[in-house]
Design a protein that fits this description.
- This protein is mainly α.
- 89% of the residues lie in helices and 0% in strands.
- The chain has three helices and no strands.
- It starts with a helix and ends with a helix.
- The model has no long low-confidence stretch (mean pLDDT 84).
Length: 81
């Protein structure tokens, strides 16, 4: 156990090894961050595309709202006390 500790302490005593380890950790963190942002952007763009495909034209919207309004009036008249 002492040999391993001695070797580890000697290697960690070298300043460039510590800088190399920190550099590797920073590169890994930046890589993970960019992958996360890329996945988030892909999901957001898919969401916005699905919203665009669900848009109605003005005529379709008018027809649907008139139908819903008529159904609400019918429901109101049927359930009036």
């Amino acid at each position: 156990m002492n040999i391993v500790d001695d070797v580890f302490s000697k290697v960690m005593g070298i300043r460039w090894v510590a800088y190399l380890i920190i550099f590797c950790l920073v590169v890994i963190a930046i890589s993970n961050f960019t992958v996360s942002v890329k996945k988030l952007w892909e999901n957001a763009s898919d969401f916005f595309e699905s919203l665009k495909s669900n848009e109605l034209s003005d005529e379709e919207l008018l027809i649907k709202t008139q139908g819903i309004a008529q159904e609400l009036l019918d429901f109101y008249y049927q359930n009036q006390l």
